[in-house]
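Dear colleagues,

As part of the handover before I leave the project, I'm documenting each prediction I ran so the next person doesn't have to rerun anything. This entry is a single chain, and its sequence is reproduced below.
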Amino acid sequence: MPDPISWEYAWPYITAALVGSYLLGAVPFGLLLTRLAGLGDVRQIGSGNIGATNVLRTGRKGLAAATLLLDGGKGAAAVLIAQHWGPDMALTAAFGAVIGHLFPVWLGFKGGKGVATTLGVLLTLSPALGSLCCLAWLVVAFLFRYSSLAALVAVGAAPLLSWFLLSDLQMVELTGALALLVWLRHHQNIRRLLTGQESKIGRKKD
């Protein structure tokens, strides 16, 4: 177990947690997997996103599933590593991992939409909270067939669930910040949802 942090000099630890988790979160698994599979640049098809939903548009369900698991896994890994230095470091790492996925330095700060990575960090920080958010995604996706709507509901519910389930102000603040970032990255999807032009799950994007 690492030495306890002297919070009088916590900034080196906070910086290390933030930078390390950012770099981990910035690994573009969707892009790497599709290139390794000989499918080219996934950013040139569908929505142009590097996440699992767009990888699914290649027709390779296995690659999409792997992308989903790896994008969630990198968020979980960042939190698990940082937890050794306490809960505050875990929250810092959770934020850094999602920021890394949204704005990866390797791709000119143009990354994914952060849903899988956000769910990964939530499941690790609080399995109960993360499970409820995943359940919200599944229910909305099943009923309405919109991946984007399911994502918006799942992450949007996280701050409310954090308050009622955990009564933890820091978790409310973190989940609120993550929800805001994910919603901002979905601004085009929101516009298409409002105009009835959003693609449904299982339907190829024109």
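DSSP finds ten helices and no strands in the chain. The mean pLDDT is 93.

All the best with the project,
I.
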